[in-house]
Amino acid sequence: MTATPNANPNPKPDPILRLRGIDKSFGAVQVLHDVSFDVHPGEVTALVGDNGAGKSTLVKCIGGIHSFDGGEYWFEGEQVQVHSPREAAALGVEIVYQDLALCDNLDIVQNMFLGREKRRGLVLDDATMEEMAAQTLDGLSVRTVTSIRQQVSSLSGGQRQTVAIAKAVLWNNKVVVLDEPTAALGVAQTAQVLELVRRLADNGLAVVLISHNMNDVFAVSDRIAALYLGRMAAQVSTSNVTYSQVVELITSGRSGDLGLAHTNGATA
């Protein structure tokens, strides 16, 4: 297949997050094998792979839940050590897991500031928190939430996902990882969430989208990273591949048309 030039003629910025030679085992089972992975600011990188390919383990390593057994973790051009979620958050890495970790009995503002409440002395600074929450939602052009004091229990699935994403960007994070953000959503809500995902990247954030839905992947991603049995089969520009080629990478770890076979992060 002849590679199609990227639609954006501007040179791509250096990766904000760069992993090299990552290994991870649990006992005798090696889950990640020599994985390399790049994430660029202003782009959506779709992380795809079959069940058991290693996606969740890789993301938990990025987020500091698991430590790597070997390899290098680079952030903004510097090699770093990340051994806890707190250390990942200090860099500017936020992960929105599929369960969203929202409290139904709290409202939107309370959820967005949970554990990070603003105070004036010993008193909660509700005015500041409301203002910051409203500014964050406005900055993401969120129009589906009628009141920031609405209880999360009353929100739809798409609105909950929006709140979780807004919470992730509230603290000036630089990399946002979204784990299956459109799972169990209807067509209209999926479209709203995908618009928000694209808007995050357009605002300059580096977004990692984990998804099994190829329609979603091709709708919003700039790059696709395909894991196969714990190895990075390829990391390619979305504009350079077809649906069937990505499925082949996911199911066999290779794509004959691309000339790739267990290339561990080769970029096409």
From TrEMBL:
<dbReference type="InterPro" id="IPR003593">
    <property type="entry name" value="AAA+_ATPase"/>
</dbReference>
<dbReference type="GO" id="GO:0016887">
    <property type="term" value="F:ATP hydrolysis activity"/>
</dbReference>
<feature type="domain" description="ABC transporter">
    <location>
        <begin position="17"/>
        <end position="254"/>
    </location>
</feature>
<keyword id="KW-0547">Nucleotide-binding</keyword>
<keyword id="KW-0067">ATP-binding</keyword>
<dbReference type="InterPro" id="IPR003439">
    <property type="entry name" value="ABC_transporter-like_ATP-bd"/>
</dbReference>
<protein>
    <submittedName>
        <fullName>ABC transporter ATP-binding protein</fullName>
    </submittedName>
</protein>
<dbReference type="GO" id="GO:0005524">
    <property type="term" value="F:ATP binding"/>
</dbReference>
<dbReference type="InterPro" id="IPR027417">
    <property type="entry name" value="P-loop_NTPase"/>
</dbReference>
<dbReference type="Pfam" id="PF00005">
    <property type="entry name" value="ABC_tran"/>
</dbReference>
<dbReference type="InterPro" id="IPR050107">
    <property type="entry name" value="ABC_carbohydrate_import_ATPase"/>
</dbReference>
